[in-house]
Amino acid sequence: MVADRLRRIAVLTHFIPANTAAALRELATLREQHELQLLLPPGETAKHPWAVDLGFEAVDEAALCAADACLVFGGDGTILRALGRLLGCSVPALGVNFGNVGFLASLPQDGWRDGLIEVVEGRYSVAELLTVEARLNGERYAAVNDVVLSRTRPRGVLHFEYAISGTHVGGMRCDGMIIASPTGSTAYNLSCDGPLVVWDASVLVLNFVAPHSLGFRPMVLRPDHVIEVRNASDSDDAEVMVDGHVVAPLACGDTIQVCASQLRARLMVREGVSFYRNVEEKLFGFGADAH
Questions:
Q1: Residue 1 lies in a domain
Q2: Percentage of the chain surpassing pLDDT 90?
Q3: Residues of the domain holding 101
Q4: CB 76: neighbour CB atoms within 10 A?
Q5: Sign of CA dihedral 188, 194, 196, 201
Q6: Is the confidence at residue 168, as pLDDT, over 60?
Q7: Confidence (pLDDT) at 288
Q8: Per-residue pLDDT at 155
């Protein structure tokens, strides 16, 4: 089944402008031939001021949220930031891998033009990605990948007491705790021996960083379960990181709640690309020709 044709395409790029300048020039050559309206949201015109002369339109944030799709030139970090920026919009993000792994990218750096033309013509699907919400001191923070409670001192050890849906589970001495979405299961959680979860699953993963335990195993939780964590450390504060950014401290005695968010991130996937194919080719290191 062919989806709607794309016309209004917003563009977000890697934080180093030189890495994607040639790609933007190449994209400009497709504008008239495929009747595309190319939009540069705030921040992008400062990185690529010359792009306006090639037919890109400098637009505001509202126009970004009215695009048919957002084309993201960058690695997983850039794609992740784009998904976070687009939360609350219906605009899906399509990644072109200009990074190292590119697990979230549907288009490769080499030959991305042909793949983009297929997507523009409607050969794509959109994965609805569950996100995570942290609630602390009356504030709410949404994460596409994960909420991480991390130690602040290099040699400190944290002590967390945690409950799930009102049931006390136990305590753990560790370097940190990870509550990941399915998208985030392939990030920090993967490095801590957590499970891989398919993109469109409706679950959360609870994992610890360097747990001082022989018995703990990562847990997969229902999306309606609320995880309540108290920093039971005597003297070590923790910090709350949302998609890798510190948003608040978690002082000794403080409690945070983490759960699934009502917001969904939207990842555009080129026809023929899937979570399992990306796992095989980008995480296990086996290409399609390895069989």
A1: no
A2: 88
A3: 8-123+271-290
A4: 21
A5: negative
A6: yes
A7: 45
A8: 81
User: Domain with 55 in it: what CATH number?
Assistant: 3.40.50.10330
The pTM for the full model equals 0.91
Look up tokens 């890109």; give the residue. 56
103 in a domain, yes or no?
A: yes
Amino acid, single-letter form, for residue 275: F
Domain presence at residue 26 = yes
Backbone dihedral region for residue 150 (phi beyond 0: left; psi -120 to 50: alpha; all else: beta): beta
Confidence of residue 215 (pLDDT cuts 50, 70, 90): confident
Q: Does residue 40 fall inside a structural domain?
A: yes
Mean per-residue pLDDT, 119-129:
96
State whether 118 and 182 are in the same domain: no
Residues belonging to the active site: 76
Q: Per-residue pLDDT for 126 more than 90? A: yes
Same domain, residue pair 215 and 167: yes
